[in-house]
Design a protein that fits this description.
about 750 residues; Serine Threonine Protein Phosphatase 5, Tetratricopeptide repeat; elongated
Length: about 750
């Protein structure tokens, strides 16, 4: 769920301001009117007049400075920073504008730029108080405690022990692990200015940060009495109550803030955010709907309502609000943000990605666009970019459960079970009701083979969500891993009750329940199909079982049923051609596969099956071309690598070095496969490495001692390596047995040559 408070200031910053209706009036006239409006506390009118003055004279530094102060009062940090930069650039003597610019740099952790500005100010006035305070903070951030202390004492020499300077001094002492001195400085600041709320806030944060809970609560009570009508105090209470899991008190504090400042959209946004965090979306929608009705021109409230509606799948209403925002300001960042989310919902991932990339550039401190950018990259298959975007979101908002959940998913996809488990655990700790994170936690534990912990999580989820098929799938996987097949069968049966169309679950269940018993497997599949609505995948699985049993006619009918249910099921179509080929309908089968590849050139199964058929029919050039295509699609496919290596070893002029590489790749994935050892042996034989060929053939025969083709190959290798008597005797025994094998005629010719 989103966090409105996390980008509240940005929402305010995106507000559209009215434009001047008179470019003919002199700048001073507009400026003087603005100052009068400021005195009257009519900030909107003052802002309009200042903007008119700047239109007349874009280099009017005083107007830009006053406009920056207005933006600061409104909480619009982005526009305030921009105007302060311009004002200080146009008027180098405006030291306050320069210092405030430096403070903004410091807040955004840009210490280098902040220090550069402050150094220029202090060159102009070495005793400028606010500049010395910023310098002290810069040194404190850099760990230069002596420099920070020196700057504070220089400021105190001019202004005395002000509460502001004492607070900086307290922070310096706290950073140096001087708790007594730090607390004394903070308390003295409160004594000097007992009606200045920030002094209490700093002391409260110090108590909280140092774990002095009793003192913090005592100070909180004092703040409540002294600042009962302070918005800052109520905000402090709300934040504290949220951290200590007292949502009712937090809501009361936020409502009090709305009473104190009924026109403040920021206060309303904070209350809406509370509803959202507590999974009370209908209340958030109702509240924000009323807010928009009361303040129809407040785009930030309209944006928040659009986001809430979007999260409740009211996409059309969210799009309507988005259109209203973008009509007022086509470049409105919040409106573009909703537009990107809508594109994601509609499957327009490229369009969403492009908008979100732009938003992250324009608003680098806004976490949500990074999160949705990660989703866009993920949908586009750009895993590395998704990981980077999600990490950026977490850097900006490390306490967001949703962000940790996505990070867990990305780690799981990358095969990092430990990382996935860690991120999911954080997400659950932040938001215990995060169901998606709990599921990812179970998957991560399964990947790490922590089966007992995984089952605890699964059982906890099923206790609350007994109808989740995925949890039964995980339970079945755990049971298989700990060699409890009957428990796995039970879990898969529960899964199929909830999701009877799940072909994978059906396949796993019958194979576990009846290992190597094709009759019973077929009976179980037919019984399951009869109980409900059959699917194309289930009919295809039935056909596979029937084909393995040797019941070709029934298998053909099952594949036909699969294709009747889903004509686009190319897996069933490829299986059917395999069966046709075995039944002697070779040309027809190969023509069907060729047609499939015309429509879908990257179909893995069709390429592999057609390659095998070509190899069987001796069409080696065509087979090799297809096997190469298979390896382009799946570079680690051992079957294609081995078969291609074998065909290359049979082809004059072929690259035997490449054939060896392919065979060794296949061997690495399937080290005990006798067919791969046979291929390797033949390549070694062709390359003249006869002892190595003998080793491979012996390994192959240990797995298939009755394979007469391998026996023949071993005799060839022994003869070539010098062990001629053994080779002749072995080949003679093989031929005298009278048993058929593929290369018998070649073996007989070889024996005649040896005897001569």
């Amino acid at each position: 769920m989103k966090r409105i408070a996390a980008f509240g200031c940005l929402l305010l910053a995106l507000a559209m301001c009215a434009c001047s209706n008179s470019s003919d009036d002199g700048r001073d006239k507009h400026y003087q009117r603005a100052l009068e409006y400021v005195k009257q506390k009519n900030d909107n009118a003052a802002q309009l007049e200042l903007q008119n003055a700047i239109k007349v004279d874009p280099k009017f530094a005083d107007a830009r400075y006053q406009l920056a102060l207005l933006y600061l009062r409104k909480g619009d940090g982005q526009n305030a920073f921009r105007e302060l930069q311009r004002a200080s650039s146009l008027d180098p003597n405006n030291l306050d504008a320069a210092v405030k610019t430096a403070e903004f740099y410091l807040l955004t952790q840009n210490s280098k730029e902040s220090r550069a500005v402050i150094e220029k100010v202090l060159q102009t006035d070495p005793h400028y108080l606010d500049a010395l305070i910023v310098q002290a903070n810069l040194d404190l951030v850099d760990g230069n405690f002596n420099g920070a202390d020196k700057a504070v004492h220089a400021a105190m020499a001019k202004a005395g022990e002000t509460d502001r300077l004492l607070n900086v001094q307290g922070r310096i002492q706290a950073a140096q692990n001087k708790p007594v001195e730090a607390e004394a400085a903070f308390r003295k600041a409160v004594e000097i200015s007992p009606d200045h709320f920030p002094n209490y806030q700093t002391l409260f944060q110090y108590y909280q940060g140092t774990g002095q809970q009793q003192k913090a609560e005592e100070l909180l009570a004092e703040i409540g009495k002294r600042f009962a009508n302070s918005q800052q105090a109520q905000t402090l209470f709300a934040d504290y109550y949220l951290r200590t899991n007292q949502p009712e008190k937090a809501e009361a504090a936020l409502r009090r803030n709305i009473e104190l400042a009924p026109d403040s959209s920021a206060n309303r946004l904070r209350l809406a955010d509370l509803y959202i965090k507590r999974e009370r979306l209908p209340e958030a929608e109702k509240f924000l709907t009323q807010c928009v009705a009361d303040f129809p021109d407040a785009l930030e409230l309209k944006l928040a309502l659009a986001d809430v509606k979007f999260d409740q799948n009211q996409v059309d209403e969210a799009k309507k609000l988005m259109a209203e925002i973008l009509k007022v300001n086509p470049a409105h960042g919040g409106g573009k943000y909703i537009e990107a989310k809508v594109f994601l919902k509609e499957g327009k991932y490229t369009e969403a990605r492009d908008i979100l990339r732009s938003l992250t550039g324009d608003y680098p401190q806004w976490a949500e666009p990074y999160y949705f950018l990660a989703l866009a990259h993920l949908r586009l298959g750009e895993a590395e970019q998704a990981q980077k975007a999600c990490s950026n979101a977490l850097q900006l908002a490390p306490g967001n459960s949703k962000f940790h959940t996505l990070q867990s998913q990305l780690r799981l996809m990358a095969g990092d079970g430990e990382g996935a488990t860690k991120e999911a655990a954080i997400a659950v700790r932040i938001q215990p009701v995060n169901y998606a994170a709990q599921k990812l936690l179970a998957k991560g534990l399964l990947m790490m083979k922590k089966y007992d912990d995984c089952l605890k999580v699964v059982d906890d989820i099923l206790a609350r969500m007994p109808n989740d098929p995925e949890m039964y799938s995980i339970r079945a996987a755990v049971s298989v891993s700990v060699q409890k097949p009957q428990d796995a069968v039970k879990a898969l049966a529960s899964l199929l009750q909830l999701k009877p169309e799940d072909t994978n679950a059906l396949r796993e269940m019958v194979i576990l329940q009846y290992p190597d018993q094709f009759d019973k497997q077929i009976e179980a599949v037919r019984a399951h199909i009869a109980t409900g609505k059959p699917t194309s995948g289930q009919q295809q699985f039935l056909g596979d079982l029937l084909m393995q049993q040797g019941n070709f006619e029934d298998a053909l009918r099952a594949y036909d049923s699969a294709l009747q249910l889903d004509a686009s099921n190319r897996g069933a179509l490829v299986r059917r051609t395999q069966l046709q080929f075995a039944m002697g309908q070779q040309d027809e089968a190969m023509k069907i596969l060729q047609d499939v590849l015309v429509a879908d050139p990257d179909n893995f199964d069709a390429n592999l099956q057609l390659a095998t058929m070509c190899e069987i029919r001796g069409q080696n050039d065509q087979a090799m071309r297809l096997y190469k295509k298979v390896l382009e699609l799946r570079p680690n496919n051992s079957r294609a690598a081995n078969n291609l290596a074998w065909l290359m070893s049979q082809t004059d002029g072929a690259d035997l070095g490449e054939a060896l590489r392919l065979a060794m790749q296949a061997k690495q994935n399937l080290p005990d496969d006798p067919n791969i050892a046979d291929t390797l042996g033949w390549i070694y034989y062709k390359r003249g490495s006869f002892p190595m060929a003998v080793t491979q053939y012996e390994a192959a025969l240990s797995k298939q001692p009755e394979n007469r083709n391998i026996l023949y190959h071993l005799a060839l290798a022994r003869y070539a390596s010098g062990d001629r008597s053994k080779a002749i005797a072995d080949l003679d025994d093989l031929l005298q047995s009278g048993k058929p094998f593929l290369e018998r005629e070649k073996a007989q010719e070889t024996m005649r040559q040896w005897r001569q």
